[in-house]
TrEMBL record:
Belongs to the oxygen-dependent FAD-linked oxidoreductase family. GO terms for molecular function: FAD binding; oxidoreductase activity. The keyword Cytoplasm does not apply. Keywords: Oxidoreductase, Signal. InterPro entries: FAD-bd_PCMH, FAD-bd_PCMH-like_sf, FAD-bd_PCMH_sub2, FAD-linked_Oxidoreductases_BP, Oxid_FAD_bind_N. Residues 1-29 form the signal peptide. Gene3D superfamilies: 3.30.465.10, 3.40.462.20. This is FAD-binding domain-containing protein. It comes from Polyporus arcularius HHB13444. The keyword Hydrolase does not apply. Residues 131-317 form the FAD-binding PCMH-type domain.
Length: 590
């Protein structure tokens, strides 16, 4: 039942990539009536203002700290530095802290003069611990009333607000220097409905077997809960299952290996509950506030309000087949063979999609440093015969390269998605706590079909390459205009991602150089399908036209909806809807 060593390697490749981005390089403009109030400004609320807020919420106020702070001051560490070093890359340890992001670079702040405020785990660098981009105060929300009190307080004091669930954002959208954080991590309620009908639905509307998740529930918790009811949920894949199941993931789209079968996260939502910037709690579904429902399904996290719960459809728990392969050129012509392998995989993609496969392929070095192509795919509700038949065109092509390629492959049945997920998780290595940046683009099916060789040629020079078969199938069957999600998802077959990274203390100009590379490589990747777009949740921070890339033709509608529900622009995030009305720091309106 266990995936091959190839499976282990490719998952390493995948998560190795997903550690990513940058820190914010921003210039803080003069405070004025057009600007948010941030910590240090004279407008910042007084201690007595904060104690009034503290009386209105269920938990003590948060004073988030950078996760390396126990190691400082260096002369007399305030906490257990050895334990902190040991846990530094543990995704669950990070998700449990209001001051930590999964991608450590977002905890750092770079001033206009290239001076950095950061709190590094590498104490050898001997740099004092700075607060960086970590919020200074916030609330530990446990229920909707907590969120309502926090939103009203933030509006009254014109604060720079960030909404944070489990801190996985790959563009640093859930942290900001001098901000007030609404932390939803502890909103862990999970409820089931055998016959859920959305609020306000006509009696004729059929009920669905549904699960309602509080905003802080993480995928591992959601998968365990739904499996205990013998049902399946469309959800994400990460080491430890720490990504939020009812936060940024779904608000940006939410891809899954099950998406080709059941659609994206947004295609499975029946209802949201939301607190908007005037402190009102609303229900959003097809019948109540349908425009807000449109926006929340893919229009981006941290933009329209604070979601307090998400209700998803569940699906029957059926067996699946896992396909794992690894093909590493072993001869002298390795790069030419790799190009052939990737071209062959591109040629096979439409067929794999039509057969119902979902999953991920990687180009990465193996344990011995040889760069190869690998993959991990699932066929939900499939038979071994169909799995074999549908993978054999690709597998036999690779087999024909036998003398030049070390090739391993396996087809393995699993009783349930949960069993598959558990086996995969057991092999995952986390790169949480590292610093990186990524670029990505959605590649349409017809581009892959007609230009497989050129696609492979363009992808191959990219580092940390990941190709996700998360679209096609059920994703392609949804009318793109029923929700805010980027319409590019509906014609896409592959979500292609590349990444780069750096160590703590790397000079700002060197990091800028890495971003220039991302920018250049994005130009090449984008040119494969200029009219397509990118996935808001896993994309570059250097898009020349981010709103077009992330929301396509839906961006104007989304902005109009945002103005209805957030007329005071409390909720703005980097490269999100409405961010174009603000300076780079998202503090002052232009
Ligand atoms: C290791 C790893 C694996 C990943 N795997 C997948 C995957 O399999 N599929 C996939 O699609 N994506 C994946 N992603 C990307 C993921 O979808 C995004 O990082 C997502 O933003 C994470 O959501 P979060 O709630 O954990 O993060 P956070 O950083 O807490 O929030 C992300 C964004 O959503 C906003 N937000 C969070 N909660 C709320 C709320 N309750 N109301 C309003 N806004 C809110 C925040 O303000 C922020 O803008 C992965 C990322 C990582 C780091
Ligand atoms: C995070 O918190 C959860 C819930 O309290 C706990 O079970 C888990 O062990 C914590 N993770 C770490 C690494 O401490
Ligand atoms: C850079 O800017 C920051 C913030 O304005 C300031 O505190 C710091 O002294 C400056 N550093 C240098 C070297 O100019
Ligand atoms: C910490 O920084 C020092 C100085 O740059 C470097 O030599 C060392 O390799 C770093 N340690 C780790 C664990 O990254
Ligand atoms: C959790 O769910 C239960 C049952 O649906 C509900 O009664 C309760 O109010 C919820 N708690 C919170 C904090 O939302
Ligand atoms: C599972 O496969 C069977 C047989 O092909 C089919 O009848 C059934 O509809 C499938 N169920 C789902 C949920 O895809
Ligand atoms: C597919 O079936 C063929 C013929 O039965 C067999 O030789 C081959 O090993 C199978 N492939 C896999 C990946 O199981
Ligand atoms: C792919 O080929 C089809 C059929 O020849 C053509 O209609 C379509 O425009 C092509 N698409 C691209 C992106 O080249
Ligand atoms: C960008 O492409 C160049 C080659 O064109 C390559 O050397 C570099 O590693 C790539 N960088 C990334 C981040 O993909
Ligand atoms: C708050 O905003 C909602 C949604 O825009 C609106 O329906 C409601 O009337 C507003 N409430 C108040 C008190 O302004």
């Amino acid at each position: 039942m266990h995936p091959t060593p190839a499976g282990r390697f490719l998952l390493l490749g995948f998560f190795g990539l997903l550690a990513l981005p940058y820190f914010s390089v921003v210039t803080i403009a003069d405070s004025g009536s057009n600007c948010r109030c941030i910590f240090g400004d004279s407008c910042w609320p007084s201690a007595s203002d904060f104690s009034k807020l503290a009386k209105q919420v269920s938990q003590p106020l948060l004073k988030p700290l950078p996760p390396a702070s126990p190691c400082y001051p260096l002369s007399r560490p305030s906490g257990d530095c050895e334990a902190t070093k040991r846990l530094w890359t543990d995704p669950s340890w990070r998700a449990n802290q209001s001051g930590a992001m999964q991608s450590a670079n977002f905890e750092t702040f770079v001033f206009g003069n290239d001076t950095t405020s950061a709190c590094f785990i590498n104490t050898t660098l001997a740099i004092p611990c700075g607060q960086g981009s970590v919020p200074v105060v916030g609330i530990d929300a446990r229920n909707d009333a907590d969120v309502q009190a926090a939103v009203k307080f933030a509006a009254a004091h014109n604060l720079r607000v960030v909404v944070k669930g489990n801190g996985h954002d790959l563009s640093g959208r859930s942290t900001a220097r001098g901000s007030f954080v609404i932390w939803t991590h502890h909103m862990k309620n999970i409820t089931f409905d055998a016959l859920f009908t959305p609020t306000g639905a006509p009696r004729s509307e059929a009920g669905a077997q549904a699960i309602t998740l509080g905003a802080g529930v993480q995928w591992q918790e959601a998968y365990d809960a739904v499996n205990a009811r013998s049902r399946v949920l469309v959800g994400g894949l990460s080491p430890g299952g720490t990504v939020g199941a009812a936060g940024g993931w779904v608000l940006g789209g939410g891809h899954s290996v099950l998406s080709p079968t059941f659609g994206l996260g947004v295609d499975n939502v029946l209802q949201f509950t939301v607190v908007t910037s005037n402190g009102t709690r609303l229900t959003a579904n097809m019948h109540r506030n349908p425009d807000l429902f449109f926006a929340l399904r893919g229009g981006g996290g941290g933009t329209y309000g604070v979601v307090t719960s998400v209700t998803y459809k569940t699906h029957p728990n059926l067996p699946l087949i896992s396909a794992v392969f690894s093909a590493t050129p072993s001869g002298s012509q390795t790069s030419g063979v790799l190009q052939t392998l990737l071209t062959d995989l591109m040629k096979a993609m439409p067929g794999l999609s039509d057969a119902g496969w979902g999953g991920t392929a990687f180009v990465a070095p193996d344990a011995t440093g040889n760069v190869g192509l690998s993959g991990s795919f699932v066929l939900f509700n499939g038979t071994m015969a169909r799995a074999n038949q549908s993978t054999s065109p690709f597998f036999s092509t690779v087999t024909s390269l036998a003398s030049e390629v070390t090739f391993t492959t396996s087809l393995t049945p699993f009783d349930s998605f949960h069993a598959w997920y558990t086996a995969m998780s057991a092999q995952e290595a986390s790169v949480a706590g590292t610093n990186g940046a990524l670029g990505s683009w959605l590649l349409p099916r017809d581009v892959i079909e007609n230009h497989s060789e050129h696609v492979a040629e363009t992808l191959l020079p990219l580092t940390g390459l990941v190709m996700g078969l998360y679209a096609g199938g059920a994703v392609a069957q949804v009318d793109p205009d029923t929700m805010g999600l980027n319409p590019a998802w509906r014609t896409a077959l592959l979500h292609t991602i590349f990444a780069t990274g750096w160590v703590e203390g790397t000079p700002v100009n060197v990091i800028d150089g890495l971003f220039d590379q991302v920018r250049q490589n994005m130009t090449a990747l984008r040119s494969l399908a200029p009219d397509s777009g990118a996935y808001f949740n896993e994309a570059s921070l250097v898009e020349p036209d981010p709103l077009k890339a992330f929301f396509g033709d839906h961006r104007a509608t989304l902005k109009a909806i945002k103005h209805i529900y957030d007329p005071i622009d409390m909720f703005v995030v980097p490269e999100g809807i409405g961010s174009d009305d603000f300076d780079d720091a998202l503090i002052c309106k232009l």
